[in-house]
Each structure stands twice: as C-alpha cells, then as structure tokens.
C-alpha cells in the first residue's frame, strides 16, 4: 500500500448547526491517518472514551480503521490525533465524521478537532537482530502478567518456530482477547510479536499478520485493541516500544532505560509487548529477510 499523501493545508468546511456550543480545538495528527483525515468525509463511531483517549472506528470501504484522540500526556499511539488538552464528555456510540481536515464527534455536546499539524509514526527498526535475540534470551521475569498470558505467549513462540499454520492459528486464537482492559495483555503480546516480525522480514510478518486477521479480532477483543493490531502488522507501535527494540539491536543502546519506560506503559501493556518481542525474536531471529 503506498504511503498516504499528507495534506499541506486544511480546506474550509461548512459549519454545522450548534458548532458554537461544541468543544473546538486544534490537533496534530499522525501521518498514518492522513488519508482519512485529509480525504473526503467518512462516517465513524466512538468505540471507547476514557479520561485521556477517545477512540473512533471509521469505515473507509475496506474495513474499519482506528483513529484516536489523545491529550498531550497520553501514550502516543501510532494512529493518534493529539490535542492540547483531553477532550471531555465524549462517550461510546456517538457518531463521528472524519475528513476534510477535521474530526467531528457527536451533536451539540460533541467536539470538533481541526488538524493543524502532522507528526510521523515510524516503523520499528532492529539494527542487529541477533544481538537483540541474545539480549532477550535470558528474560524470564514477567511479574505483571498472568500465567495464562505467559503460557499462551510460549505457544505462539513455538508455533512461529515450527512454522506450522494450524499451530499458529491456534496460538493466535488463544491470545486474542486474553485478559482485561482496553488492550488485553494477550493482544499486546500479539502486537509486540507483529512489530518484531515486521522488523525481521516480510515473510515472517505476513505469516503472523495473516493468522491474526483470519482470527477476526473485531469479533474477539475490544475495538481499540483490534484496531491497533493492523498498525502493529506494519511495524507501528508506541514510541516506548520502538525505542526499546532499537536499543536491543544496538551495541550502544541503553536497554535498561528504554525497558523501564516500556514497562511503565499501561497496567500490563508494556510488559506484554516485551514478552511478544522476546518470543518472536527467539523464533524468528534466524529468518531470511
């Protein structure tokens, strides 16, 4: 898929009735959602709303795509539109329109975010994959993770190592939706493995991505988590994870510091992504690019 063209400006849009009573604020959007934000208006729906995040699924004809509004202190998701302060009062089920440089949510009590700037989410790079594998080979501590998640991650690693399609499908099936929260730990394991597989090579990445897609994430886990997995399949993740992977693959990388920052992400998300990276590196580090 070609990289989207980032719009150089925002077109004038027609005002909606009641705009005067809406929250109106600027945003800085990831270039990964440039085709959505800068294209014609498309309908969407709020699928999650927390104190720091509003998640919207937008149907662009080839399946739903996730876009998230986040405040400046929130974890920087690869599909985020970052606003100067969190947008308050939004709720799941509200309608949304995305396009022509704007994101509009709800009716009179909703919000209008106009994209004024862009930022670029970069795919993870592991410079020396063998070094990264050796550095993670001895990791056994998973204090934040449930034993069922650790066991399911182990089955994923074995399936990736053996290359058996049925075993891989079963391993993915066992991880999807496993655990509580907006992004269950099992999904974060899959996301970590997907990002590493993309860095290792296209064949490994395609095999795992196909297995995840075939499992039907939108019907198996939260909409937010399901929406983030396709980004992971493109090597895109939160910056704490990509920085950790870069450090693992560099002789000069500060692995301890980047690992601490990663483990601070969410209740279990950082630890689960680290586990996904470890099992994928152990299984795929010798794969041919």
Automatic annotation (TrEMBL):
One Pfam family in the UniProt entry: AllH
Protein name: DUF2877 domain-containing protein
Lineage: Bacteria, Bacillati, Actinomycetota, Actinomycetes, Jiangellales
């Amino acid at each position: 898929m070609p990289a989207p063209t980032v719009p150089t400006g925002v077109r004038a849009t027609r005002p909606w009735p009641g705009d005067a009573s809406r929250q109106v604020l600027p945003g800085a959007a990831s270039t990964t959602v440039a085709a959505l934000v800068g294209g014609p208006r498309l309908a969407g729906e709020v699928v999650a709303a927390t104190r720091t995040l509003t998640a919207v699924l937008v149907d662009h004809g080839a399946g739903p795509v996730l876009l998230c509004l986040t405040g400046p202190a929130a974890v920087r998701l690869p599909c985020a539109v970052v606003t100067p302060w969190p947008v308050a009062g939004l709720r799941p089920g509200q309608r949304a329109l995305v396009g022509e440089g704007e994101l509009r949510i709800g009716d009179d009590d909703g919000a209008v975010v106009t994209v004024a700037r862009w930022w670029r989410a970069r795919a993870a790079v592991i410079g020396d994959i063998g070094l990264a594998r050796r550095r993670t080979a001895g990791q056994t501590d998973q204090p934040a993770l449930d034993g069922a998640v650790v066991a399911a991650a182990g089955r994923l690693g074995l399936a990736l190592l053996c290359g058996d399609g049925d075993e891989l499908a079963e391993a993915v099936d066992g991880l999807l939706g496993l655990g509580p929260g907006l992004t269950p730990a099992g999904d974060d394991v899959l996301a970590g493995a997907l990002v590493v597989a993309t860095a290792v090579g296209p064949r490994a990445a395609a095999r795992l991505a196909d297995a995840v897609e075939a499992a039907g994430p939108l019907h198996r886990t939260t909409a937010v988590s399901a929406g983030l997995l396709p980004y992971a399949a493109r090597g895109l993740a939160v910056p704490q994870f990509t920085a950790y992977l870069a450090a693992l693959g560099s002789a000069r990388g500060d692995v301890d510091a980047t690992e601490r920052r990663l483990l601070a992400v969410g209740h279990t998300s950082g630890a689960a992504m680290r586990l996904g990276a470890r099992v994928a590196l152990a299984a795929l580090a010798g794969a041919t690019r």
